[in-house]
Structures are given as structure tokens and as C-alpha cells.
Amino acid sequence: MDKPVKQGTSKPHKQKRAIGRPSDPSRVVGRDALITAACELLKTMPPNEVSGVKIARLCGADPSLIRYYFQDRLGLLIATAEKLTTEFNPDLAVHAAGQSSQDQFRARMGMLLELDAENPFFHRLMLEELLVSDQRPALDLLENLAKRGLAAYRAIFDRGIEHGELVDMNMEMLFVTIVGICQSFDSAHRLYELATGHELPRKTFLEQYKQFIGDFLLFGAASRAAK
Q1: Residue 6: what pLDDT?
Q2: Residues 6 or more apart whose Cβ sits within 8 Å of residue 99
Q3: In Å, how far from its chain's centre is CA 102?
């Protein structure tokens, strides 16, 4: 004799959880929260100390979300670098509008210096994590930033040469020189204090350093008569 078929005994379909997404809904935060946490940590510690666990802990997230959103820690660091540089660029447009070529040059260099002053480990992130990576997204980001930066300085100098404000020079060398100067802000500040024997507030040194570097790169160390 056949057994009666029981009605309503089939198990409801359980939706498959995405790989990396935590099972606890209370620990699910958005992608931007993880990026913001990484930015905050990079203000106080070098990139090699910024772990996925520390980032997740700062924003109260499950560490598995890093895999869910970014695949791995490097993916998160790339997104962090993109956020920092994206926030940096709109400010440049504001500072450069309606200015002379020399003022535009000072504004662009000064904003990069401020970016490094506010994010002391920004360039270490670029050099120690992204530049040494064999991952195409990391190298693509750096290549794009370098080409955009170089093109911006070239445009400023082309206009300056046309108006008799600036002289022609090796733009590639100028670009990497500016990057090198800006990334050494913290060590320059400390060395200045040791050399002079007295402390100088960080913001005061930043303004003096911007003025000096601008003067030095625009006018050099030779006397006007010698030129």
C-alpha cells in the first residue's frame, strides 16, 4: 500500500550567502565605512601595520567584509588611495582658478604638501604597498596619478612660458622632485627642529615650508644678477 504524501513538509529555500559576507547582520557595514577607517589609521601608523583586523575593529565590522567588498587587503588599500587622491583633486581646481601660472604652481604643490601633512603615511602607502605590488589595479592607479600630475604641471608651465612667467625645464624631473619633497614633510619638520634647537608648530612649519619650496623651485638659489 502506498504511503500518503505529506503536505507542507518541504523545507523553505535558503538564500545562499555571498562569499565573504558575515552571517551576523549587526556586523555588516558599508564599503565606504571600511575605506574611511583605513584612511583614519593611515594618519597614525605606517601602511604595513594597517591590517584588515584593525580596520574592521575601528568601524565595528566583520573582517570578512574586506574580502566581500575588496577581495583582499590590497584591494582595500587601493580604494583608500583612490579616496584620498579624489578628495585632493577638487581642492586643486578651487585653488588654481583665476590665478597666475606661478600661483597655480604654488597652489598645486602646496595642496600636495598639505595632503602629505594631513596623511603622513600617504606616500608610503603608494610606494610600499602599491608600487611594489604585481597587481594591475595598483599599478594602473599609480600610472594614472603620475600621468595626471605630470600633465597638470606641464599645462601650468606651457601657460607660464607663453605669458613670460616661467621658463622651460624638464617636467618629468620637476614632477618627481616635488613628489619627493612633499613625501618627506614629517622628517623635514623634525630635522628643522633639531637643526634650529627649538620646536615649531606643525602648521607654522607647513606654511613656511610651502613658501620656501615654492620660492626655491621658481627662482632657485642663484642671484638674479648671476642669471
Answers
A1: 52
A2: 107
A3: 25
DSSP secondary-structure letter at 128?
A: I
CA dihedral 170, 171, 172, 178 (to 10 degrees): 110
Summary mean pLDDT of the chain: 85
Spans of the chain, pLDDT less than 50: 15, 17-19, 23, 25-26
Q: Where in the chain is the domain with CATH 1.10.357.10?
A: 77-219
Question: CA dihedral in degrees (42, 44, 45, 51; nearest 10)?
Answer: -60
- Give the distance from CA 43 to its chain's centroid: 11
Phi then psi for residue 99, to 5 deg, are -105, 165
Residue 179 has, within 13 A of its CA and on its CB side, a CA count of: 18
CATH number for the 77-219 domain, one of 1.10.357.10, 3.40.1160.10, 2.60.260.20, 2.60.120.20?
1.10.357.10
pTM score over 0.85: no
- Cα 126 to Cα 128: distance, rounded to the nearest angstrom: 6
Please report the pLDDT score of residue 17 as a whole number. 46
Cα–chain-centroid distance for residue 137? 15
What pLDDT is stored for residue 87 in this prediction?
74
